[in-house]
Amino acid sequence: MISAISRPYIAASVPVLREHGVAISRCFYQRLFAAHPELKNMFNMPNQQAGTQQQALAAAIFAYAANIDNPEALAPVISRIVQKHVSLGISEAHYPIVGKHLLDAIAEILGAAATPELLAAWAEAYGLLAAALVSEERKQYQAHGIAPGEYLSVTVARKQKESDSVTSFYLRATDGSLLPAFQPGQYISVAVDIEQLALRQLRQYSLSDAPDRGHWRISVKREPENIAADGPYPAGLVSNLLHDACHEGDVLQVSPPCGDFVLAQEDRRPLVLISAGVGVTPMMSMLHGSLQQSPQRPVNFLYAALNGRHHPLKGELNSLRRRHGQIRSHIAYEKPGADDLPQKDYQQQGYLQLAQLPDALLPHDGSYFLCGPAPFMQVQRDALLARGVAAHQIRQEVFGPSLLQHLQ
Ligand code: FAD
Q: DSSP letter string over 89-120?
């Protein structure tokens, strides 16, 4: 718990951080990478260039300060950070380095306003957060039986095209042993060397198959060139490399399964899985997992895609539906293709509109999981809240750097 001396300084920092948070985090990363260029391997460098990582860190610092006396609000967020850190191989030794450059950045950006008392308060607050993270991360590494930064070698046993833009990679242990079961909804980090940047980059991919088959499957969307107003930006580094240069028989370095966006064992409420695009990946794993864990539990599978050509794992969903009567599905195609049959292939044309759906698909007592692009999740979350679903019934997975933002 933060000391009585430091508490008012942290509280007083909240409006200052709101104003200067992005500048502080930009300065922090510049200082960090200048002093420790090797740490670029741990960060998503396109997110650095796009500024999204800086915004995420600023939001995190701000949310931490605003909630420092609210451990209940911080606990789930800390749990999520721990999972991400373990997948990235963050070690105890990284914390003093990050702490030093964070405090230096606060001092540089706030100038005279960064009094010794304020800096001491932030040093204490950071120390508390670091201690909590280190302790939890240590337990996770022990449970996985690996050291921080150690990766597992897996062989690409099969590569399977799932849609125009998504390809699955079936991974097996290089020594032929069975890969451990995971919790449906978890992800692994994949470490890839990017020659043109002389960097190793890590990306997270949700495990998309049933949890206990002895292999892992990731389903990766090829990230195209981004023709933004201020772009264009290059095509995604890792996803394109996996699609183009990773073949059956190749060996990949991956983290153990991480993440807390998972089915709770004891939860028997109707399960409602709502996703869009490649956000379908953790949902397919949850669908398999739920059918195995609680065969009677109703599952509603709601999904939005551009059309049938961009609908990964469609055959697998249909096959499960035919075999398990408790699955209800509802598919929305934004622009159906000529081959897509209304009612059979999709039930809604245009965006997925939850307001139009019956209670049978969106039960009041359901357990809701959302995954997809950020605007999609915001719209669906708002629609669920408007229908009377409580916030605590809804869980979300973000495929990008947005930790802590929802605490603001
Ligand atoms: P990057 O090189 O990281 O680029 C990403 C985008 O940024 C591209 O569109 C690029 O054009 C753009 N860009 C590059 N530079 C700039 C710049 N300077 N300014 C603005 N934009 C720029 N993905 C999946 O496909 N399947 C999954 O199952 C999956 N699960 C995930 C689970 C989790 C928990 C998380 C966090 C992410 C998941 N992702 C998943 C996303 C995945 O981790 C990668 O982010 C994704 O594959 C893109 O990585 P990349 O290296 O190909 O693209």
A: T--TTHHHHHHHHHHHHHHHHHGGGS-HHHHH
pLDDT along the chain (408 residues), means of 10: 93 89 93 95 88 82 85 88 94 95 95 95 93 96 96 97 98 96 98 92 97 97 86 90 98 98 93 98 98 95 98 98 97 98 97 96 98 96 97 92 47
Give the pTM. 0.95
30, 37, 101, 243 from 26: Cα distances, Å: 6, 15, 11, 32
Among 165, 162, 164, 167, CA closest to 246? 167
Q: Which atom of ligand 1 is nearest to the CA of 221?
A: 25
Nearest atom, ligand 1, residue 281 CA: 28
Q: What angle do CA 370, 319, 331 make, to 5 degrees?
A: 40
Q: How far apart are CA 318 and CA 322, in angstroms?
A: 6
d(CA 275, CA 373): 9
Out of 188, 239, 283, give the residue to mutate to test ligand 1, the one with the largest number of ligand atoms within 8 Å of its CB: 239
